[in-house]
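note to self — DONT lose this again. spent like an hour looking for the file last time. sequence + predicted structure for the chain T wanted, 154 res
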Amino acid sequence: MVLGGVNPEYAQSAFTYYPVSLKAWWTLNATSVTVGAKSMSLNTVIVDTGTSVIVGTSSIVTALTAGFPATINCTEIDSLPNLSFRIGGQDWVLFPTDYILKETILGQTQCVLGIIGMDLPSALGNSFILGDAFIHKYYTHFDMANARVGFALA
């Protein structure tokens, strides 16, 4: 974490910035979320360091994850589809290794889907919260002075 700026050593690409559309959170206008060949319209995404996973409107998450196995075999993660968010005309892609969480408990490793549904405030419309699963892949610059958020490949 860098306070008051960014450290270019942590970015593999240039930052792309988006204006904050709702001052209550780090909310950005977005147009869609896609899993494999399934795509759904979005209104916004909220970038949140306090959320570990990807959280979306329940009905959209249910539609996008239909067909996912109840238990994910850790050796088959690469066969799952990519997840992407279209923000400002650009797709921000997460590979299955980004959104599938590997948890080891008492020596047993389990893989679980890191996308959950939650009913967000209706004022947000169709929205997703981009938590640590997204921020881990994309170095995120919360630029308070300019009311914008920037992403670069970490």
